[in-house]
Specification:
It comes from Pseudosulfitobacter pseudonitzschiae. By secondary structure, the chain is mostly helical. The protein has a domain of 79 residues. The radius of gyration is 57 Å and the shape is elongated.
Amino acid sequence: MRFYLMAAAMGALAACQPAVPDSAAGVGDPGRGVGFDSYAQSVPAAPSVSSQTLDGAAAPAPAPAATGGFDPDLVAASLAEDERAAAANSGREVVNASPSNPAPAPVSNPGISDENDFDAVASRQTIASDKARIAQNAAQYEVVQPTALPARDGSGGPNVVEYALQTKHARGTKVYTRLGFGGQSKMARNCAKYPNDDDAQIDFLASGGPSRDRMGLDPDGDGFACNWDPSPFRRAAQN
């Protein structure tokens, strides 16, 4: 009797368990999943979203799918935000370079030539007028033929350039004898009368120099009055 009761209980339990699907049913059939009648049954369906929530409030709209383009409103809003940020940083209004926002026209300045501006030149010149202007400029050319150098007649007084090239000693080298006292102070007073050392040297040579120094312009006897320096003329002749 006890055996029969246990067998009846086990049969009742077996009847309550669900049937196990045949896993081999989907093998070789691409439309059927393992343990399912079809592949669609193996993928859970996405839950449907109602336009109304449980409490009656509107549900958020789904995000639009990407299409590869751009939203003009979003671009304009982004540019406006960039302009506000730049203006806040620099304190100046941002100027965007675009065909709809051309650069300001330059202010006319009469002091600046517009010869390189094709439109400006074309507005006031023509091919004929340009040809006439070239001919006018060519007519004003003057060719100067070279002439012979003028000969020196010896009446122009001493020539400091010729004297500098004839001498070879350095300035300060005693070549001529000088007599008298207070030579440096006398030279300072007398040299102050000349505007430059070249005029003093010319006057010195015209008054008997370099062998004689009547005006006290060459107390060291080097033949150069008032510290006149022949070096620049010598270097020019060497070049």
